[in-house]
Amino acid sequence: MVTYSFQLENFEKWLADFASQLNTSVIDRVLTIPNRLGDGTIIAQNINQNFSYAVMNFKLDSDWEFHRESGSQGFVISFNQVEAQKEAPISHRQAIMPDKKNFRNDIYLADARDSASLRLSAGSTVKRLLIFCSHELAAQYLPAELFDKLSLFARENSTADNPMFISLTHRAMLKELFEIKQNDSLNQIRRLGSVIHLIEKSLHSFLRQEHSVLSRTVKKTDLESMQHVEQILSSRLEGFPSLESLAHEVFMSTSKLKNLFKQVYGHTLYDYYNKSRLQRARELLMNGQCSIKQAGSEIGFSNLSHFAKAFRKEFGILPRDLVKGR
Asked: For residues 316, 320, 324 and 326, what is the CA-based torsion angle, rounded to 10 degrees?
C-alpha cells in the first residue's frame, strides 16, 4: 500500500515530494511510475505561483491512498476517468463514503483548504487531470458573482455528492490531453491550451448545473446508474445495446431509464450513443489509423453512404474532406 499525505501548494512540489517518497525522481516534470507499483506517468507543471496542474495516466499494480490535508486558499478541479477493480472509498471532511462504481467519469470542484482522501486499488486504470487555481487568480479573472458561487459550492458541497459529468466534449478534449507525447516539442503549450479549454467548459457545466433542478429531483443512486449507462454507450460503439439490456443493467424500467438519461445528459440514449461512435470515427480518421470504409465499419456502419451522411450531419464535413485536410 502506497500512502501519501500532503498539503497542496502547487503540483510540481506535490509531485517532487511524492517521487521522493517512492524513492524515484522527477525528470523534466515527469514522474515515471516504478515498475513494482504500476505502469504510466504523472506530469506536473506550475504556470505561476497561483496556477498549476497535474496529469495522471497510469495503471496500478498496488493499492494507493492520497490524503490531502488543509492547504492553500484556492480551488481544486479534478477530471476523473478511473476504472477500478474494487471499491474505492473516498472521503471529504472526515466522512468516509464507499464509492462502489467500477468506473468514475466525473468532474469535482473542491476547496483546497478542505481535507480529502482517495483510495485507488491495484488493477485500476487511472486518467485524471488535477488543476489548482488560487482564489486570488480566480477573483482576478472571474466575475464577482461567479467567483462567489464557485466559492460557496466548493465550501458547502461534499465532493462525493455533487459531481459534474464528463460530457462528450470533455471526453474528446481529455483524450487529446492524455495522448500528448512527451517528446513533442510543443507538449507544454499543448497541455496548457487543453487545460485552459477544459476549465472553460467545466465552468459552463457548473453554470448549467446550478440553474437546473437536477440535484433536487434525481437521487444520487440514479445519477450513478446513469453514469454506468453512459459508460456502456461510450464503449460499445459497434452496435447500439438494446433498451431492455440497458434497463436490466441498472435495475429500472425502460421508460424511467429513457427519461432519466435525457434529464441528466441532455440527449436521448441513441443520440448519445451515435455522437460517441461518430466521435470515435473522427479520431480514427484524424489519426490516419484506417480508411473511411474501415472507420465506418469499426463503429457499426455497413453502408458507406449512410456513414458519410451521419458524419456530415454531426461535424458539418464529409469524411473524405476531413481526410484530405489532414
From this structure: 70
